[in-house]
Amino acid sequence: MVFNRWGQVVYTTSDITQGWNGKHDGVDSEMGTYVYYLQGKSGTTGREYFVKGNVVLLR
Length: 59
Prior knowledge:
Elements: E1 2-3, E2 9-11, E3 23-24, E4 27-28, E5 32-41, E6 48-57
Antiparallel strand pairs: 1-2, 1-5, 3-4, 5-6
């Protein structure tokens, strides 16, 4: 999941092969800092992972 500075979800997927293209509803998102949350589960150990951070969108 990717969130804008107001906490709105601008991208979400459950497909590990997909990535955010910097657009929201087909429109280029504003340049700036976005927050991401990643959640997953290891297929071998069953351990759950949760990662969060920031990404800066530049054009």
